[in-house]
C-alpha cells in the first residue's frame, strides 16, 4: 500500500472511531463511496491499526459465590458470568475482575508471591496503577526455559511491581532440574536463596492452577518427557500448583520429581494467610477440586461454567 492510501486509511479510521463520524459523512469528505469506507475500515482492522476494547464492569453471581464459599470454607469467592462461551473471553473477564479488586488484598511494603503461566499473563494485561506503595513482588517457582517468554514469568512480576509502585524479584532458575543434587546446589546459591526466602516470607500468594495436558507450558517446553507424562497420568495426576503435580486428593505424584522442582513447596504455600487462586476452564476442574480440598486456596476467582462443573464433581466424588 502506498503512503497516500495508507494515510487515507488511517484518516478514515480516526474520523470514524475517534471523532465519531458516520460512514456517509466520511465518504462525502473523502470523495469516495460508503462501501469503500467500510472496506478501508476493515482493512485497517485486519492490519492491526484498529484494536477494539470493550471496557465494562464485571459482575459476580452471588448464589454461586455463597455455595462455593460455604462448601469449601473459603474467605471469599468471585464467580464471573459467562456472557460468551469462549475460553479466552472467559479468562479475560475473570482476570479483569481480580485485577479490579486486587488492591483490596494488598498493602504498602507488602511482599507478594506470584506464579506464572497463561492465566497469570492474562492477569498482568489487566493490572492498573494502585495506590499502594513499595510492594515487593517475588516469583514463586522457577521459569527459565529455552524460550524465556514462553512462561510469562517476568511479565506478571514486572506488571504487578509497577502497578504497586514497588520492585520485582525473578527466580532465575529452571522450574525442573535434572537431579535433587543440582536442585540442592542451586538452592544454596546466595542470590537464589534470597529469592526463595523472600517467596517464603510473602503473606500473599497469587497463583493459577495448571491442568495435566499436552498443551501445558511445562510439557511444550520439554520439562518432562512423554514417559514422565504417561507416568503422571497413570498415577492419577490432575494438575499442578506452582509446578508441583498432584492427584485429586492432593497427593504429590512423584516425590523424586518434587525434589527436582525449584520454587515454593506446597507445605509452605498452605501456611500462607492469603492464598488467591484464579482458575478458569472446565479441564482444570479436577485440579481445582483437589486444591480446594487440600486447603490451598482462601480466595477464589473463577467463572460460571467452571464453578458449576466444580460443584457437580464435588458432589459426585468422595473427599
Description:
- By secondary structure, the protein is an alpha/beta fold.
- The chain has 2 domains: 44 residues, Arc Repressor Mutant, subunit A (Orthogonal Bundle); 255 residues, 3-Layer(aba) Sandwich (Rossmann fold).
- Helices cover 47% and strands 13% of the residues.
- Strands 1-10-9-5-2-3-4 form a 7-stranded parallel beta sheet, sandwiched between helices. Strands 6-7-8 form a 3-stranded antiparallel beta sheet.
- Helix 5 crosses helix 6 and helix 14 crosses helix 15.
- It starts with a helix and ends with a helix.
- The mean pLDDT is 91.
Summarize the model shown.
Helices cover 47% and strands 13% of the residues.
Chain-wise SSE layout:
Blueprint: H1 3-18, H2 23-30, H3 34-46, H4 62-72, E1 76-80, H5 87-101, E2 111-114, H6 118-126, E3 136-139, H7 153-163, E4 167-169, H8 180-188, H9 190-201, E5 204-207, E6 210-211, H10 217-220, H11 226-234, E7 237-241, E8 244-247, H12 255-259, H13 266-270, E9 274-278, H14 285-293, E10 299-303, H15 304-316
Through-space gap between termini? 63 Å
How helical, in percent, are the residues?
40-55%
Total strand segments: 10
The number of helical segments is 15
Overall 3D geometry?
Answer: globular
Spatial strand arrangement across the major sheet:
1-10-9-5-2-3-4
Count the domains: 2
Following the backbone from N to C, one meets helices and strands in this order, namely: HHHHEHEHEHEHHEEHHEEHHEHEH
Class of the largest domain in CATH?
A: Alpha Beta
Average pLDDT rating: 91
- Helix/strand/pairing category: alpha/beta
Largest β-sheet summary: 7 strands, parallel
Gyration radius over CA: 23 Å
Low-pLDDT segments = none
What would you say the CATH architecture of the largest domain is? 3-Layer(aba) Sandwich
CATH topology of the largest domain: Rossmann fold
Amino acid at each position: 500500500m502506498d503512503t497516500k492510501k495508507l494515510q487515507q486509511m488511517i484518516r478514515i479510521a480516526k474520523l470514524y472511531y475517534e471523532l465519531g463520524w458516520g460512514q456517509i459523512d466520511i465518504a462525502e469528505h473523502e470523495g469516495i463511496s460508503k462501501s469503500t469506507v467500510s472496506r478501508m475500515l476493515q482493512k485497517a482492522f485486519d492490519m492491526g491499526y484498529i484494536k477494539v476494547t470493550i471496557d465494562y464492569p464485571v459482575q459476580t453471581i452471588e448464589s454461586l459465590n455463597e455455595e462455593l464459599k460455604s462448601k469449601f470454607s473459603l474467605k471469599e469467592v468471585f464467580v464471573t458470568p459467562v456472557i460468551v462461551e469462549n475460553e479466552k473471553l472467559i479468562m479475560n473477564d475473570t482476570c479483569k475482575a481480580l485485577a479490579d479488586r486486587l488492591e483490596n488484598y494488598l498493602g504498602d511494603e507488602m511482599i507478594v508471591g506470584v506464579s506464572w503461566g497463561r492465566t497469570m499473563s492474562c492477569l498482568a494485561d489487566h493490572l492498573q496503577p494502585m495506590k499502594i506503595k513499595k510492594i515487593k513482588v517475588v516469583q514463586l517457582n522457577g521459569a527459565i526455559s529455552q524460550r524465556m517468554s514462553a512462561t510469562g514469568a517476568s511479565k506478571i512480576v514486572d506488571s504487578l511491581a509497577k502497578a504497586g509502585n514497588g520492585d520485582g524479584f525473578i527466580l532465575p532458575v529452571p522450574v525442573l532440574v535434572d537431579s535433587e543434587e543440582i536442585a540442592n546446589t542451586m538452592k544454596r546459591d546466595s542470590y537464589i536463596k534470597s529469592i526463595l526466602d523472600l517467596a517464603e516470607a510473602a503473606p500473599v500468594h497469587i497463583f493459577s492452577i495448571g491442568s495435566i495436558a499436552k498443551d501445558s507450558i511445562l510439557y511444550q517446553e520439554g520439562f518432562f518427557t512423554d514417559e514422565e507424562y504417561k507416568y503422571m497420568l497413570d498415577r492419577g495426576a490432575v494438575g499442578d500448583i506452582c509446578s508441583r503435580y498432584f492427584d485429586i486428593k492432593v497427593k504429590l505424584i512423584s516425590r523424586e520429581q518434587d525434589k527436582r522442582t525449584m520454587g515454593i513447596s506446597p507445605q509452605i504455600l498452605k501456611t500462607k494467610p492469603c492464598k488467591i487462586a484464579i482458575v478458569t476452564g472446565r479441564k482444570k476442574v479436577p485440579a481445582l477440586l483437589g486444591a480446594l480440598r487440600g486447603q490451598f486456596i482462601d480466595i477464589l476467582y473463577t467463572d460460571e461454567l467452571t464453578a458449576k462443573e466444580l460443584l457437580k464433581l464435588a458432589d459426585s466424588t468422595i473427599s
